[in-house]
Amino acid sequence: MNYNRAVIVGNVTAAPEMRKTNSGQSVCTITVATNRIWKDKGGERQRTSEFHSVVLWGRLAEIASQYLQKGALVLVEGRLQTRSWDDQSGAKRFRTEIVAESMQLGPRGGAAPQGEPQGKEEKPEEIPIIEEDEEVDAKDIPF
């Protein structure tokens, strides 16, 4: 049995890049940053970021290009795919991407999506950070 699934929740690092293939199909690429926070042996808080390339196709691409913007929180679920090509110097290059099969937009922040009028600005919802070494009390879970 084989299983290829990737699920990430992170922040979009730049405006989505939307384009059309020669056949007219929509394709959008985004980069999503995910953070890992932990305490080292000395008790100092450490943080590292990973950057993930995400490719969205069809209607999902159109939604991403319309509603996502730099800094937006997004959940992406899809499969990992590695492409290879020869660069200008003839060296073999590889790129591993997440090909999105579903996407969930995070809480809406202060700016309206492209093409929508600016209205009353909302403050983005704060997302709590739960560190690996924190104890979670079952009565604190809201469901």
Quick rundown:
With 143 residues, this protein is mainly beta. The chain is built from one helix and six strands. Strand 2 and strand 3 (26-39) form a beta hairpin.
Helix/strand layout:
Elements: E1 6-12, E2 17-20, E3 26-39, E4 45-57, H1 58-67, E5 73-86, E6 92-105
Parallel strand pairs: 4-6
Antiparallel strand pairs: 1-3, 1-5, 2-3, 3-4, 5-6
Give the number of helices. 1
**The CATH fourth-level homologous superfamily:** Nucleic acid-binding proteins
Structural class: mainly beta
Q: Overall mean pLDDT score?
A: 84
Number of strands: 6
Largest sheet: 5 strands, mixed, barrel
Shape: globular
CATH fold topology:
OB fold (Dihydrolipoamide Acetyltransferase, E2P)
- How much is the radius of gyration in Å? 18 Å
Order of helices and strands: EEEEHEE
Tell me, what is the CATH class?
Answer: Mainly Beta
How does CATH name the architecture?
Beta Barrel
Determine the fraction of residues in helical runs and give it as a percent range: under 10%
Q: Which strand order does the major sheet show? A: 1-3-4-6-5
The fraction of residues assigned to DSSP E strands is over 45%
Distance between the termini: 34 Å
Give start-end ranges of low-pLDDT stretches: 110-115
Number of domains in the coordinates? 1
